[in-house]
Design a protein that fits this description.
By secondary structure, the protein is α/β, with parallel strands linked by helices. It contains 14 helices and six strands. It has a six-stranded mixed sheet with strand order 2-3-1-4-5-6, sandwiched between helices.
């Protein structure tokens, strides 16, 4: 699978000192004071369209309505024998876990679950790349949400040197074919990519570093990734170019405001699926300022390069 994890991390740290950002070379993750310059740019970074975050009260009101719709959806899936698979991918700190937890919060855990796999074992490294994910696919009536997925190969593994360029190329070729098999087998399949601006990512890394309840989230790989924002952008562009297909398209959500992003992710799924008692008014409309197709987002990335 290429060089070892510790070797790749050491290379990343040598290239970009821990805590550094190429745009902000003096940024120190360990300094408890967050730079005012970065703070001022955080919410609007990455082209975020709103100058204020969604307030708690309207957020909680909308969240409750959407969670009620997910209860209806789950009942329908159980009755109809639907199988639902959702991949949540995105930048580090983009809020994948938060989106998943809000979806699962009120529904029956016997039929809906989150999958967040750790690094592969030695035996798994010798398997077909997709093999360890297949065992977690749902049976009839169930929904599975992947908190990161096989797309690790197109992102962190590629950027951090955990796989070879040939392995990356094979993955980008094979992933659409693998996903087409799932769709042809009548799995309801969704891919959601959460993105955050550079300054917002730095802010969230800093918050995690200095919040005793979140420090466990900051790993050596996270620290090494801070100075590689542009490398991830290039990997992101390749991933979208090769794997956004008619059978398995990407939906991209700007997640600078985590509350809005959670609501958007829920709306994307509820809008796409039919079920008894569906309340379109309660679901609301997807915000085109925040949510776009993978193809549209790729065009936006390429327009900036």
């Amino acid at each position: 699978m290429g060089e070892g994890k510790s070797d790749a991390t050491a290379k990343a740290r040598k290239a970009d000192p821990p805590g550094a950002s190429l745009r902000y070379p003096d940024f120190d993750l360990d300094n408890p004071k967050f730079p005012a310059e970065i703070e001022a740019r955080a919410l609007g970074s990455g082209g975020y369209p709103y100058d204020k975050k969604l307030k708690r009260e309207p957020y909680e009101e909308q969240l409750q309505l959407l969670q009620l719709e997910f209860i209806k959806l789950q009942t329908h899936a159980e009755t109809a024998g639907e199988r639902i698979v959702v991949l949540f991918e995105g930048r580090d700190t983009s809020g994948k876990g938060g989106c998943i937890s809000r979806i699962l919060e009120r529904i029956n855990p016997r039929h809906s679950r989150s999958i967040a796999l750790s690094k592969p074992t030695e035996a798994e490294r010798g398997q077909w790349y997709f093999q360890r994910y297949i065992v977690h696919l749902p049976t009839r009536g169930d929904m599975v949400l992947f908190d990161r997925s096989w797309y690790n190969r197109a992102g962190v593994e590629r950027v951090m040197g955990f796989c070879t360029e040939d392995e990356t190329a094979r993955f980008l070729r094979d992933a659409p074919e693998f996903e087409a098999l799932l769709v042809r087998d009548n799995i309801r399949f969704f891919k959601i990519y959460l993105t955050v601006g550079r300054e917002m990512q730095l802010k969230r890394f800093h918050e995690r570093r200095h919040d005793p309840f979140k420090q466990w989230k900051v790993t050596d790989i996270d620290i090494a990734a801070i100075g590689r924002y542009d490398d991830y952008t290039r990997a992101e562009a390749d991933m979208l170019r090769f794997t956004h297909t008619a059978a398995s398209p990407w939906t991209v959500i700007n997640a600078n405001d985590q509350r809005r992003a959670r609501l958007e992710a829920m709306r994307v799924l509820l809008t796409a699926l039919d079920y008894a008692g569906k309340d379109a008014k309660a679901i609301g409309a997807i915000d085109p300022n925040l949510t776009m197709s993978g193809a549209d987002y790729l065009a936006r990335i390429n327009g900036k390069s």
